User: What shape does this take?
Amino acid sequence: MRIGELAARSGVSVRALRYYEEQGLLDAYRSDSGQRHYPESAADRVQLIQMLYAAGLSSRTIAELLPCVEAKVSTPESRARLAAERDRIDAQIAALTRTRDRLDVVITHSGSPDSGCTWIADQDVAAVEASHSATP
Assistant: This one.
């Protein structure tokens, strides 16, 4: 299939498909006139690439993991890489949660017209975090 058809079928832009090809994530063969053509399986691969990007993986990490995924082979190295990526995402989630908690405290303290924009003490943030972790 041609690049425009793959873009429409997979819901990504033509530019993204070209980028995936540049990064070694997607292979295309060229016609005599130089047009890109993709196998039918390319749509599934693009969906997988999109899923891995959405999980926060870099194009380099995806390129390293795709051969294992396609071959349906799990190696200790690929599992360790995936676990490391999961740990990185967990750390990002924790940082975002702390940021959200600090915003909650700011919102709470800004309810009073005379509160102004004041520094929020860490113990106030800790109290909000404790209330978040106490709720299921």
Observations:
- Helices lie at 3-10, 14-22, 42-54, 59-71, 76-109, 122-134.
